[in-house]
Amino acid sequence: MLLMLVVGSATGGGAERQWMLLARALIDAGHEVVLATVDDRCTPELELLIGRGLKWRVISGRMFREGAGRPAQRALGIAGIIARLRRLVGRERPDVVYSALTITNGAAWCATRFGNEDKLVWGIRGAVEPYPRFARVIEGVVGAMAKSVPLAIANAQQSVDMHRERGIRPRAWATVPNGFDAEEFRPDAASRALARSEWGVGDRPVVGCVARLTPVKEHPLLLRAFARVLVQVPNAVLVLAGGGSPAAERNLQALAADLGIETSVRFLGNIDDAARVYAGLDVHVLASSTEGLPNAVGEAMAAGVPCVGTDVGAVAQLIGDTGVVVPSGDERALSVAIAGLLADAPGRARLGAAARQRIIDEFSVATTAARTLAAFSAAL
């Protein structure tokens, strides 16, 4: 089968990461894969995939990159992306065109009109994709497009329900959980020692959160909960890894100072090696107010780190009985869960081992690829 995966970039966030993992698994399963990206940056992982047979095609141009701040030029750039993708579909003749995220889904819809409509699958990531400008117009356009899309695949049933409520109603839905690479994310003593040396924490207990500095990740709630934790575990350290606006980081640093915990908090910013961060942690926490099926939790579990998460999206489904799930927005419950894990080293070790095994057994990349192919076969 020839599969075309369409995504904004080979670098970046959770959706991009999942598309790269899926490409690798599909190639390993014997399928031909074309990866079409808007971004022209090549990563070492992408180079390895090209060496294994992946066809990589860039569908953007200079006008899109240079006109990002100019609405007219950006519109022309998007039109160019659609035209290039349409030509690529016509040339490669894929059996399936599988796109991810709102803008790329819209481009793929346009590119498959009049001849390839029955090949299109949309990837719907997260609980709700935000539309920061012209929200109603964008939702209306996306909703109108969705009616003719043969299949949309979400990574959690909660995502399906929330998008349906917003008018995103393709002809069929499927849910396929994210997959996680248990070879890349694994317990590693050398990486743990290196990370903790860089953070200057020695053998102190370390709580971490790998997440973008955006409102839905609820970092202020986590900081307030961690202030409570320090009352019981005064030598604990909180590591926040993830990019965001300079203003967002400054606001969080100011809150940490107001809480009197600034010396116990490390801000790492954007990170290139998430596996090393997970290896250095004792507990991973995600305090989000909304999620689909979060990559950070699955990656931490694969690394053998017990997780505390809020009961949103498919977080409870992912963690199972290998960590602690608390109500969203409950600062006290979050602090109690974190402090309880920090106080029980043997319990943490047992939960961490169980978490890793859960990922291997139920959320492997190969399992995700097989479920994705089954969804294609059932609907197209």
Features:
alpha/beta; Rossmann fold; 13 strands
How would you describe this protein?
There is one protein chain. With 380 residues, the chain is of the alpha/beta class. The chain has helices spanning 14-28, 44-51, 62-66, 71-92, 102-111, 135-146, 157-165, 189-199, 219-232, 246-259, 274-279, 295-302, 315-319, 331-342, 345-362, 365-379; strands spanning 2-7, 32-37, 55-58, 96-100, 120-124, 151-154, 173-175, 206-210, 237-241, 265-269, 283-286, 307-310, 324-326. The chain has 2 domains: 2-179 and 364-379, 3-Layer(aba) Sandwich (Rossmann fold); 189-362, Glycogen Phosphorylase B (Rossmann fold, 3-Layer(aba) Sandwich). It has a 7-stranded parallel β-sheet with strand order 3-2-1-4-5-6-7, with helices on both faces. α9 (219-232) packs parallel to α10. The longest helix is centred in the N-terminal third of the chain and has 22 residues, at 71-92. The mean pLDDT is 93.
Please describe the topology of this protein.
Elements: E1 2-7, H1 14-28, E2 32-37, H2 44-51, E3 55-58, H3 62-66, H4 71-92, E4 96-100, H5 102-111, E5 120-124, H6 135-146, E6 151-154, H7 157-165, E7 173-175, H8 189-199, E8 206-210, H9 219-232, E9 237-241, H10 246-259, E10 265-269, H11 274-279, E11 283-286, H12 295-302, E12 307-310, H13 315-319, E13 324-326, H14 331-342, H15 345-362, H16 365-379
Parallel strand pairs: 1-2, 1-4, 2-3, 4-5, 5-6, 6-7, 8-9, 8-11, 9-10, 11-12, 12-13
Helix pairs in contact: 1-16, 4-5, 9-10, 9-14, 12-15
